[in-house]
Amino acid sequence: MASSTVTSAIRGAILVLALVVFLGNIMMWIIMPTDTYYNDWLLHILADTNSTFFGIQGPIMLDFTFPILFIAVLGCLYLHLGKRRSSFIQSSKRIENLKFIRRPMIVKGLGIVNLTELALFTMFISLCVWYFADYVRHWYKQVPVRSMTRGEKVWQTKLDRVAIVTGVTGNLCLTFLFYPVTRGSSILPMLGLTSEASIKYHIWLGNLAMSLFTAHGFLYILYWSITNRLSEMLKWGDHYVSNIAGEISLLCGLALWITTYPTIRRRMFELFFYTHYLYIFFIIFFILHIGIGFTCIMLPGFYLFIIDRYLRFLQSREKVRLVSARVLPCETIELNFSKSRGLKYNPTSTVFINVPTISKLQWHPFTITSSSNLEPERLSVVIKCEGSWTQKLYDIISSPSSIDRLQVSVEGPYGPASTHFLRHDVLVMISGGSGITPFISIIRELLFISSTLKCKTPRIMLISVFKNSSHLSILDLILPTSGTPSNSGNLDLQIEAYVTREKGQSKDKLQSPRTIWFKPDASDAPISPTLGPNSWLWLAAIISSSFIIYLVLLGVFTQYVVYPIDQNTNKLYSYTKKGSMNMLFICFSIMIAASAAFLWNKKQNAKEAKQIQDMEESVTSRSSNSSFHHDDVEMESLPLQSTIKSINVHYGQRPNLKRILSEIKDSSVGALVSGPKRMRQDVAAICSSGLADNLHFESISFTW
């Protein structure tokens, strides 16, 4: 108990320190456009940090790069200490007191948000407005001199100043753009967020950034046109801003931005997916456009994303052991992978799956339905046919001449650092179609807690909406095929299933799921934690060591190559060469640090992988002798009735969610919804209406 108290105190101190550092960083953003910064602070900073090793780049990294990377390292320590506690049971009743800031509301253009998100969004917009307005005020002071020097009218020079400030304000959005899509981030889970849930922030920031960058480019083209200087568009300034690099970056950004339009994304997902790779060229030419010195303000987001992306690349090279698949009559399959016992994840986590025989480049996210506690050696996902990629996968696995082995790679898992479902008296899980999958993982975890840990669990009501009765077979996946405790009846689970397109029960007998066993190759490895059981400590080491390596390389390069020519003027040495070398140093440093950590842990994982492989081969051998391998067999779960109190199927109707939720009088009701946008908004509207103060809304949306 004392140890837990000390750990909580340390984690609290880490959070406070991280908050102080972040507020200091935000203060720098607020003060930067002001005269105080340019006429006082900047002069002192440059004087105190004048160095032949880093030049003008040094103080910018000290003010903007180092603080965020320091917060990321603190986040790793915070999450590592949190792993020692139960990620499912550490709920607190004091969260109830903060319910009002989590109350959902529907805002046009933003979707479902809570008061905290709306407040932070408003503050960020206010920061952008302040940033824009004060920079315009500051640079308008230069207009008379610039107008006379260039021989142009005052309003034309003002247009030039507005154009540059628009781009600089876009940089503010770009600074935060990559944090939500850094899947293995330590910053997001420290704030109680996941990358999946934060994608909406990436969308907001992306739309705002591209709007500002587009306006920036348009205003400059307009300015050059009215001042008869269109030739500036072809200028590659090697000692200042490179216009061509900026134009290439903007074109890449526009191509990427246009394909994110919801209609295009839904109907032509592959076009959206492949054009998103243009972000690589967008960033490269963006750095060459403004120079590496100013880029250091935005560097932390880029840096952490590159670390995450490289670790994902290393993990994706591994081929994983696909052990079996269950084929359902509703064009749905469950894939069962072998995993190491050291791989832990929380309910609602996701993995990204790649099947090279379908597409070598496409990665698709799926919710994990298994529980790492209940099924320590299995990881399962459920995939429903809803596109060309999933249809091809279903056809391959369900074909009569099924294959012996399917080559699969995964990235992840990614999910919440902790969950708070146990703080509720009742959990109402509302799903539409394949939206039931995250709830399967929650039910299985609660089953483990109820039967193994002997803890009290909430009463569960699962409301599932399906189009056809064949989809009812998905309910057979609620319980795992093995490992279910014998006393699973402790879980109070009620299922209300709604079949909307049929008036009554079909006369045809519903087909049972069938199981297909595979023969994994000897080179296929169980899914293991990329950085081992102490992954957060390893990530902290990667961030720290790679940045130190980068600083050493940068210091040597600046001291012996740049400084003899530039003499810290930042005007004589080629911007292009300096930017290119910095990008090379960053990538090299990250590759060295991350590869060393990955290879060390891969060696440790290989020992456990060999034991798992030997055990599975022994089971496979017994199955072959019993003539069960190769053929499709039925693998029954425990009867649903052993766990579920009641199953009611309603035909030809939709659930009256408002009535159902209002009739539950328990003091704390978790209203979880996963499904179509309309369903999520309906539940959010009910929970925000104030008719029932006991409702706590949580949306699990698939926005990847």
UniProtKB/TrEMBL annotation:
Keywords: FAD, Flavoprotein, Ion transport, Iron, Membrane, Metal-binding, Oxidoreductase, Transmembrane, Transmembrane helix, Transport. It is a multi-pass membrane protein. It is found in: Membrane. Its EC number is 1.16.1.7. The chain crosses the membrane at residues 12-32, 60-81, 109-133, 162-182, 203-224, 244-264, 276-306, 536-562, 583-600. GO terms for molecular function: ferric-chelate reductase (NADH) activity; metal ion binding. This is ferric-chelate reductase (NADH). It comes from Sesamum indicum. The lineage of its organism: Eukaryota, Viridiplantae, Streptophyta, Embryophyta, Tracheophyta.
